[in-house]
Specification:
This protein is an alpha/beta fold. The strands form 2 sheets. Strands 1-10-9-6-2-3-5 form a 7-stranded parallel β-sheet, with helices on both faces. A 3-stranded antiparallel β-sheet has the order 4-8-7. Helix 7 links the parallel strand 9 and strand 10. It has a single domain, classed as Rossmann fold (3-Layer(aba) Sandwich), CATH 3.40.50.1360. The chain is globular. The chain is built from 7 helices and 10 strands.
């Protein structure tokens, strides 16, 4: 795992987006098409804003997936992740992407997982732009995360720490308003991506960052599994990197 420390979240977003853009340009040149995963949440604001402005990307040849969606939530809800991505990313691209495969949490959740499994399994993912939750989750794989399932999308229960984060970020007025279930991309499916670009700003993520890069790789610290991936870059700011320490043995830029 390579770690890039920026001064603040704006610089972090710029660097992560530049990395993603370069990977997409190289993939399009080599393969003629690209498959991208993008994440949601407050940690991705700056990165996505920069990525939509990146030059020389033919988005009409890029197929886009996302990580998760709440169970029972309509796209009109302010906290909907497919709404988030349409407003903050898809509609801001200079041209429409080849496809945007939105996760629909309404209706039969297992049927939606099966639909998405068939689509994402057609070809490998080239670039995944993801984040880490305050409780260390990847997508909605809360601790203890399932490190073994090979199913691309799964139905998960959201733990209280995860739900408190969603409320704390302002997406919901109360804890009770936060759904308790979601569809999530699985850990193994995330790790199948060729390149992982992980954006994690803010002091509230400092412990999750520390657990991701130091200590045992464990389902209790889901993001720790990123150390097993062959091409992961973790973008942090000074606040989220504050618990790593100068003598942690971590190589940084």
């Amino acid at each position: 795992m390579n770690i890039v420390i920026s001064h603040d979240k704006c610089e972090l977003g710029q660097r992560a987006a530049q990395h993603a853009a370069q990977e997409l340009r190289e993939t399009l040149e080599k393969k003629g098409e690209a498959r991208l995963i993008v994440a949601t949440g407050a940690s991705q604001f700056e990165m996505l804003a920069e990525l939509v402005e990146a030059p020389e990307i033919d988005w009409s040849r890029v197929t886009i997936f996302h990580l998760d969606e709440y169970a029972g939530m309509s796209e009109s809800h302010p906290a909907s992740f497919r709404r988030y991505l349409r407003k903050r990313f898809i509609e801001r691209l200079p041209v429409a992407p080849a496809a945007f495969h939105a996760v629909n949490g309404e209706g039969d959740l297992e049927a939606e997982c099966a639909r998405l499994d068939a689509i994402i399994g057609v070809a490998p993912i080239d670039v995944a732009c993801i984040g880490i939750g305050e409780n260390g989750h990847l997508a909605f794989n809360d601790p203890p995360a399932d490190f073994k399932t090979e199913k691309p999308y799964i139905v998960v229960e959201l733990d209280e720490a995860c739900r408190l984060q969603q409320m704390g970020e302002g997406w919901f007025p109360t804890l009770e308003a936060v759904p308790t279930k979601a569809i999530s991309m699985s850990i193994r499916q995330i790790l199948k991506s060729k390149t992982l670009i992980v954006s994690v700003p803010d002091e509230r993520k400092a412990l999750a960052v520390k657990n991701a890069v130091i200590g045992e790789i464990s389902p209790l610290a889901p993001a720790s599994i990123l150390r097993e991936h062959h091409d992961t870059t973790l973008y942090v700011d000074e606040a989220s990197a504050s618990l790593l320490g100068k003598n942690s043995g971590i190589e940084t830029q």
